[in-house]
Write a structure and sequence with these properties.
Largest sheet: 6 strands, mixed
CATH architecture of the largest domain: 3-Layer(aba) Sandwich
Strand order of the largest sheet: 3-2-1-4-6-5
Distance between the termini: 68 Å
Number of domains: 3
CATH class of the largest domain: Alpha Beta
Helix content: 25-40%
Shape: elongated
Structural class: alpha+beta
CATH superfamily of the largest domain: HUPs
CATH topology of the largest domain: Rossmann fold
Radius of gyration: 29 Å
Length: about 425
Amino acid sequence: MSKPVVDAAAWMERFGMLPPPGGTILCAVSGGRDSVCLLDYLWRLGQERGFSVAAAHLNHGMRPTAQRDEELVRRLCRQRDIPFYTEKVDVYALCDAWRLTVEETGRRARYEFLRRTAASIGAAFIATAHHREDQAETVLLQLLRGTGPQGLAGIPPVREGIIRPLLDTPRAAIDAYIAAHDLPYVTDETNLDTHYARNRLRLEIMPQLLTINPSAPDHICRTADILRAENDYLDAQAAALLPDTGTALPCHTLLSAPAALRPRMLRLLAERLPVGKKDFSAAHYQALEMLAQTGGTLSLPGGAAAVCRQGTLTLAVPAVISPEETPLRPGDNRVGAWHIRLGDTPAPGALAVRPGAWSVRPWRREDGLTLPGSRGRRSLKRLLAERGVPPEQRDAVPVFCLAGQAAAVPGVGVDASAVPEQPGNTIYIQLF
C-alpha cells in the first residue's frame, strides 16, 4: 500500500488535538472527499496512538441524494468497525422555528447534533475536515465583508472542543490520499452552484489568484496564523480590563483603555450574554462606546439591550414576560419568567391581600396605586422610580390585579382596596 500523503500528526500535537490514550474523537463525516479522508486518517492514526474514532453524520434530507450519502458513510464505518451515529432533521421546518436562513439553520442543526453525540459517548473532541484552501477562502471572504484581525485570523485550529486536524493540509494532499487508499466519496451537487459566494470564490476567483502566485493559499494562511497570535494577545489584554464576572463595566474603565482595546472589551462583554455576540457588528460596538460617553439606552441584537447610567455600562437581556393578563390559582403558578405562589401561610416578602379573582400582567403606563396612609392615587411609574427601579427593568415587574385592576406590586405595596378587611381572611402572594 502507498504511504499516506496526509500527515497531520505534528499539527495535531502542536495544538493539543490528540486525546489521551483510550480517548475518542468524534469525526463529522458528510461523505464528501475531505471528511472521508479525515475519517480514514484518524482511524489509522488512532491505531498507532491508542485512541479511537467514531463517526457522526447528520442527514438534512435536503437533496435527493441525501440517503446515498448516509449509506456511504455507514458502509465505510462498518468496514472499519467504526461506531456510527446519525440523525435526520427537517431543515426547512427548523428554518421557520429558528427564523434563520437555510444555510445558518443547517449549520446550527449540525453542530447541535455533533455536540449532543460527543457528550453522549464521552468524546474528547469533535473533528471537522476544514483544510488549507478552506482557510484561505474564509480569510478572503471575511476581507470582502469587512472585518478586523479576529475575522482575518480565519478558522481557528481548536475552539470549544472542535478540532481541525487538516487545517494545515492542502487540498492536493487530500486528493492524493483518497487516490492512494482508493476511498469512495460523494460529491455535493450544490458545491458547483456559483450563486453561493464561497463556491464562486473557489471555482472562479481562486484559480485566477493562483495564476498570479501559485503559493497564494499558503501565504494567506500564514498571514492568518500571524493575525491569530496577535489577536489572541490583544484579547488577553482586553479581558484583563474587564470585571471577572457579569455584564456591567464602569464607563471610565472602558473610555480610559487604548482605543484598539475598546471594541474588544465590548465584544468580550457581549459574549457573556445568554444570546452571545451573534449578529453584533462593528457598528454596535461603536454605538456602545458612544453610549458610555453620553448615557442612555440602546437596543442590541438577540433582544439584548445596553443601559448607561451613573457611570456604568450594563448589557442585559430583558426577562421573558407574559404579554397578557393571566389568572392565578391557589398554589404555584408559572407565568412567563415569573414563579408565583398563592397561599394562606405568611412568608417573608409575601404580599398580604384580600381573597378574590387575582391575575398578573406586566405594568402599564396608566397603572397607579393608592397605598394605605397615602394622600391619594399615585402612578406606578413614579412609585417604581422612587424605589430605584430603572426604566429598562420595569417590564420585568409583575403587577397583581384584583378583578382586573392593578392592586399589588412587589417592592411597592398593596392598594388600599386590596388590603385584607379582617385578620385571618388573607391570601399571601409570593414571588420567587
